[in-house]
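TA notes, week 10

Several of you asked for a full example with nothing omitted. So below is the full record: structure tokens for the whole chain, then the designed sequence directly under it. When grading your own attempts, check the secondary structure regions first.
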């Protein structure tokens, strides 16, 4: 049954033209696809934005009918352990294959930043030893975790979060093909919750559709377990009016419902960014939010910290009246 398929896989781009966003990186990949000579590369960027998909498209274009035997995709953080991964990489690199001149085998190594330093040193040797026959494409969220010796052997391609328009374009294609009932609020809620991550957006679309059949704001937020957005907007509005106590009183029930400080801070942050309010005040709210985020991430995820933030921004708002 169609709805049982995982849409992430069903709608994984098959060609580079289907990949949304990150035009600069994609232009480079398209050029490589035309010229055929894949350099060793590191694709860096946040999760769920098309790094692995893009390199799979590139490999499929170049290798075509020998893709299955000449491309290897693996995850470096695989539970089988780095020794197995290393053996697998090495034996694949050693494997003799018949490729047209100018083409190389391609090893795609996801989450390369999770490799230990020792494993990276070993990988560096393999990259050098098999340069004639095999090219490596590493993908990671944080390239600073890769040793310099690997970074200097690779071209670095940077990917960034996708914009709302880029995500929406793909979602709308899926909505049409799957014949999904969705309204404007549903789309907005999907964009709000995915934070530029296409994987999240598609996953949340499918989860909401599977659970409720109708994709509207309420159902998306239920599936994603987001704290009530209206309440959070009221909290911000109270702060804009300088009413700290009212803001705190409105926020507390969400805390009691079990939302973590991280949930609340993260969603307040997103809402403040898009709130229709005085620009100077918005800037101050965001600036203070940066301090609050730091405290929460550094290990003070308490309601007291959030209350402190609400008090501070309410007092800033009052001082500007
Ligand atoms: N730019 C994009 N265009 C179209 N679909 C995308 C895009 N990015 C992600 N997707 C969808 O999300 C899924 C996950 O994408 P992908 O595996 O390429 O992400 P990634 O950037 O490699 O993430 P990670 O850092 O977690 O490995 C894909 O199967 C595809 O359905
Ligand atoms: Mg990936």
């Amino acid at each position: 049954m169609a709805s049982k398929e995982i849409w992430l896989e069903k709608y994984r781009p098959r060609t580079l033209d289907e990949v949304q966003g990150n035009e600069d990186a994609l232009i480079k990949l398209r050029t490589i696809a035309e010229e055929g000579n894949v350099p060793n590369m590191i694709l860096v960027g946040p999760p769920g934005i098309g790094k692995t998909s893009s390199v799979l498209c590139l490999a499929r274009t170049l290798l075509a009918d020998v893709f299955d035997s000449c491309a290897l995709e693996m995850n470096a953080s695989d539970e089988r352990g780095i020794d197995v991964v290393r053996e697998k990489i090495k034996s694949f690199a050693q494997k003799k294959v018949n490729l047209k001149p100018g083409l190389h085998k391609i090893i795609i190594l996801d989450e390369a930043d999770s490799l230990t330093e020792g494993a990276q040193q070993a990988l560096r040797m393999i990259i050098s030893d098999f340069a004639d026959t095999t090219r490596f494409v590493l993908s990671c969220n944080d390239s600073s975790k890769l040793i310099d010796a690997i970074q200097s052997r690779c071209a670095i391609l940077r990917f960034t979060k996708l914009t709302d328009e880029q995500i929406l374009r793909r979602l709308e294609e899926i909505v049409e093909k799957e014949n999904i009932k969705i309204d404007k609020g549903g789309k907005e809620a999907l964009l709000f919750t995915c934070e530029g991550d296409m994987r999240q957006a598609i996953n949340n679309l499918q989860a909401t559709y599977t659970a409720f059949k109708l994709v509207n704001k309420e159902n998306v937020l239920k599936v994603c377990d987001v704290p009530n957005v209206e309440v959070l907007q009221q909290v911000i509005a109270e702060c804009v009016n300088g009413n700290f106590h009212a803001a705190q009183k409105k926020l507390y029930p969400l805390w009691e419902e079990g939302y973590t400080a991280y949930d609340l801070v993260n969603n307040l942050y997103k809402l403040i960014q898009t709130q229709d309010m005085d620009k100077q005040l918005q800037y101050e709210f965001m600036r203070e939010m940066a301090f609050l985020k730091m405290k929460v991430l550094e290990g003070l995820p308490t309601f007291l910290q959030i209350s402190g933030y609400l008090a501070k921004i309410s007092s800033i708002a009052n001082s500007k009246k």
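The chain has a mean pLDDT of 92. Use that as a sanity check on your answer.
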